[in-house]
3-isopropylmalate dehydrogenase (Undibacterium amnicola), 710 residues
Amino acid sequence: MKIAILPGDGIGPEIVDQAVKVLKVLGESFEMEFAPVGGAGYEAAGHPLPEATLKLAQDADAVLFGAVGDWKYDTLDRPLRPEQAILGLRKNLNLFANLRPAILYPELAGASTLKPEVVSGLDILIIRELTGDIYFGQPRGVRECPDGPFKGQREGFDTMRYAEGEIRRIAHVAFQAARKRDKRLTSVDKANVLETFQFWKDIMIDVHKEYPDVALDHMYVDNAAMQLVRAPKKFDVMVTGNMFGDILSDAAAMLTGSIGMLPSASLDANNKGLYEPSHGSAPDIAGKGIANPLATILSAAMMLRYSLGKAEHADRIEAAVKAVLTQGLRTPDIFEDGCTKVGTSEMGDAVVKAL
Amino acid sequence: MKIAILPGDGIGPEIVDQAVKVLKVLGESFEMEFAPVGGAGYEAAGHPLPEATLKLAQDADAVLFGAVGDWKYDTLDRPLRPEQAILGLRKNLNLFANLRPAILYPELAGASTLKPEVVSGLDILIIRELTGDIYFGQPRGVRECPDGPFKGQREGFDTMRYAEGEIRRIAHVAFQAARKRDKRLTSVDKANVLETFQFWKDIMIDVHKEYPDVALDHMYVDNAAMQLVRAPKKFDVMVTGNMFGDILSDAAAMLTGSIGMLPSASLDANNKGLYEPSHGSAPDIAGKGIANPLATILSAAMMLRYSLGKAEHADRIEAAVKAVLTQGLRTPDIFEDGCTKVGTSEMGDAVVKAL
Ligand SMILES: CC(C)[C@H](C(=O)O)[C@@H](O)C(=O)O
Ligand SMILES: CC(C)[C@H](C(=O)O)[C@@H](O)C(=O)O
């Protein structure tokens, strides 16, 4: 089995190194091939997603991704900026289902800005559609405003859209995920304002007929943002579109106060996937050896479970991560008095040892 | 001066009554005229925004609005649903600037789900553009998908758009508001993905040239959602589009844990405005006399300040609200041990007395 390893920029390489360490001690003969992406892709080949990198990702059974972005690329034209690599990979590999768990380990409850009783033991799964919506809809651009009171002026515009089949397939992913958990699914929409999301809601209701054992409810996105702050533990699985999912999954991640712990998976229809930590490239701490590698290690665990058919390894890695937390080991981002402060590489070694 | 009073549905009438009480003791001869809106408009005239109601709102110097919506109208066709009245009023009255303060009174810090040190003394102002964006953009609807892998299927679609003049005018409102506060403005966009918001960002940077005394920074909407949870007190004024503003202003309101305290103003270019509490119609507690009227009373204060040129009355009302909190009076939504629980009408009376 072949894994494409794309470390990227900032802390990407250091954290990916730790996940690779962990993968190497599982006793499997994974073929791991590295390629540059993001700013590193631009440096190496003049493009954030070099052709060879895309080809490697397409040929591999799974992709392990670090993070991309650095201030020094902020002045490049948009098509050359690091984050375009993420969008390009999602679209080219058809990674339409983004799974973003927001889990708060009881040991880390103090790290949250929310009161412990509101978030301790939080375990929600946000499923974000990842290849449709206003992210990719055409037409888009800057044009002359065609009508209304601003007619003749320049205007920026984009197209939000979801086709029936796009909604159906993410609905199935969501209902099936809910079925494996507490059997409660919240579909987040803005059906009171947007045609796209009235349509989304109608299809969700239709697909629900095939999953009578799952309870479905609908919530407007503004209310969902409020309920995540008010009582996040009430949610089990949430499903929403690309744009709303971008906002809500980040908000949910931040509720835990330990975004350095949160993995993510982006899957296609055949469970091929790209796995990456939920946090960014943190250029301010890059190269200092203090980044938290656990989100990336847990992303590798998701990869073993969803794309490589090795759920037992995934379970072992997740248990090992829990063990190092119980041992009191903490990178600076999650450090608390009474714990032992460790660096990126020491944390990786500790997980290997706990395995 | 003429004030249109639109109580609406659910708790709307009870809370508006208290604000009217307060307005009556100021010693001004406001002409107050009532009209039905939302579900009440539908009952009275078959439409959530009856023509006579719209005309009254257009003729008045300001509009005091309660809340709209009730489960019993959920099955109506979208154009007849209560919330269409809000959208109709915004669009017809050109209320493009929505001011949503998120303030946490120190007395109420315990009501928040966030740790007191994270939110106590919170005082941010979110300025949401209210008549543009994907809320009103055309074309929109359900059509046959014209291209791509889902060609021929049905798809829901909407148009996001902002014209230059629309962005400029909300930018001016935001810079001027920041100038009266801590002189820091955060423009929230998604310029890394959306053409509309790259354009938005470019115009913000251009308008900034006229306000060199205000510090402007730019933040992606997903990051803004995170920072509101992580360190909300770092913000002073935030400005964003209609859709992002809908989500972020509600999230920010919920940070305080006391959404029953938060007023809002929606202004046109001449400071005519519609004023309403940030919370909804709460049909579950309607008629019970327990709803918190303070958000509506504070909305009336904003009305006096922005639309009626009576800032001194606004100051007095705000001081009176602080006084009743200091006295320990609390409606059930903000009740804590050691305080005195009061109902809607008692709370209104207490504010009148404190004046
Ligand atoms: C970098 C950006 C294009 C991306 C997105 O908006 O999807 C990021 O925020 C994410 O959530 O992975
Ligand atoms: C009721 C709805 C149309 C409205 C909106 O989305 O603007 C509401 O959520 C608000 O924020 O006032």
Notes: The radius of gyration of chain B is 20 Å.
